[in-house]
User: Fold this.
Amino acid sequence: MKKIAVIYHSGYGHTAFFANKVAEGAVATKKVEVEVLTVEQATARMDTLSQFDGMIWGSPTYMGNVSGPFKTFMDASGSVWMKQGWSGKWAAGFTVSGSPSGDKQSTLISLTVLAAQHGMFWMPLMMTNETYAGVKPDDAVNRLGSSLGAMAQAGQVAPEVAFAPGDLKTATLFGAKFAEIVATKS
Assistant:
């Protein structure tokens, strides 16, 4: 069975909550094994991350880009890059911020560049904003209109109540789609 890792940083718990929803979607397919790792755990295991067939990376958007701890993980991956240890594997990404935009696109671009530098295949979101089909905005998949990866907006409340239902639905569908691709295309 193929293996994927969901690797994330979360400053206040919101990105961790979203990461676990992504993992739930992947697990539900029963086509991959899933391991959820913080960036600190992943950095400590950098030499063994090549055992995964795919990685989904998640970072909050801070000041228009990945968080400092996520950037530390990215920089630490240089040792793997030197050996092209992730080349030919799958990658995807997601980000969470407190506002609808929050310059989240910049975060997804940073994750995409990381995948490209490692010679990885990038899976975009592949979901149309459901508001175009008449779904209420808060309930709509991809309600924020992203293409490059998953985006979510979290209110300044506890993670369990911070997300619109559509964002959580996007997370589980995103994880499931990634699992399907890794299981069939790797």
